[in-house]
Write a structure and sequence with these properties.
This protein is of the alpha/beta class and 298 residues long. It is built from 12 helices and 9 strands.
Length: 298
């Protein structure tokens, strides 16, 4: 494979909580950035930052050096890339950042092979604020000759890129992302349940924070999630609906590998209950509400 030159243009497919911040940072870095979103109105504000918003995926990818997908799940990414097919050129580098799971990635890799694309498996770790500030952690697996092409893209959206393999279809980056997400979701549930139990027992949450302060049990992430619940500000940095999807991908990956993930399965059920209570579009700290039959606000 011939080594590719650094990308000068990039198409972002999916401009939700994460994709919008990524597109802004790509444009601000000087890359010719086009973007498409299923609901165009959600993408239109990006034009103020120099992003060219298109009406179809095919328009977005036409002539782009790198295509970046950041959609809800594997099926959404596959459907979008099929819609983009007429604008894709053989040899185009596809940075696939959607958390798709193992089975989802297999379907995406099959499409990449069929369309003669170079797949870089590149999920990111981070939420809204790191996406907006360009401080995501990029986990990447792909051929060495195309790394120069994606370097300007990953440098614009992330503070660090960790290369874990040379074949995007092998899913090394996706597997690592699932492990990392399993930890993130478990800590989220831990914070939610601790505050729910404090409420049930009539314990002042501040007493909990004072007891763990500056010790090995203290945790900055715990304090962020607890702070959201106590303030009532559940604007999503990572939506409950997306967290449930990821939790089920984690459980499925465990089952496929012969690993029982009882906590992850219970966590997926907590997210399902919170969604049923109307918290699907709130931050995943809304796992808290799954502990109560009523509203249960902290």
């Amino acid at each position: 494979m011939t080594e590719k030159l650094p990308a000068r243009s990039v198409a972002v497919l999916g401009t939700g909580i994460m994709g919008s911040g990524m597109a802004r940072n790509l444009a601000r870095s000087g890359l010719d950035t086009r973007a498409w979103n299923r609901t165009r109105a959600k993408a239109e504000p990006l034009a103020a930052d120099g992003v060219r918003v298109t009406g179809t995926p095919a328009e977005a990818v036409d002539g782009a050096d790198v295509v970046l997908t950041m959609l809800h799940d594997g099926p959404a990414a596959l459907e979008t890339m099929r819609q983009a097919r007429d604008g894709l050129r053989p040899g185009t580098v596809w940075a696939q950042a959607t958390t798709a799971g193992l089975e989802g990635l297999e379907a995406l890799a099959a499409f990449a092979h069929e369309a003669e694309l170079v797949l870089v498996d590149s999920p990111v770790l981070g939420t809204r604020q790191p996406a907006e500030s360009g401080r995501l952690l990029v986990l990447a697996a792909g051929p060495v000759p195309v790394r120069a092409a994606v370097w300007p893209v990953f440098d614009a959206v992330g503070s660090r890129t960790v290369w874990v393999g040379e074949n995007g279809a092998d899913g090394a980056a996706t597997r690592l992302k699932l492990v990392l997400n399993s930890w993130v979701l478990n800590v989220t549930h831990g914070a939610a349940e601790a505050l729910a139990l404090a409420k049930g027992l009539g314990v002042d949450p501040q007493g909990f924070f004072d007891a763990i302060a500056d010790g090995p049990l203290d945790n900055g992430y715990l304090r962020v999630k607890a702070g959201q619940l106590l303030s009532g500000d559940l604007a999503p940095s990572f939506a409950t609906r997306t967290a449930e999807k990821d939790a089920r991908l984690i459980v499925a990956a465990g089952e496929r590998s012969g690993v029982r993930l009882d906590v992850a399965a219970a966590g997926a059920e907590r997210f399902r209950r919170a969604i049923a209570q109307g918290h699907g579009d709130e931050d995943m700290a809304a796992s808290y509400f799954a502990s109560f039959d009523d509203d249960g606000r902290a």
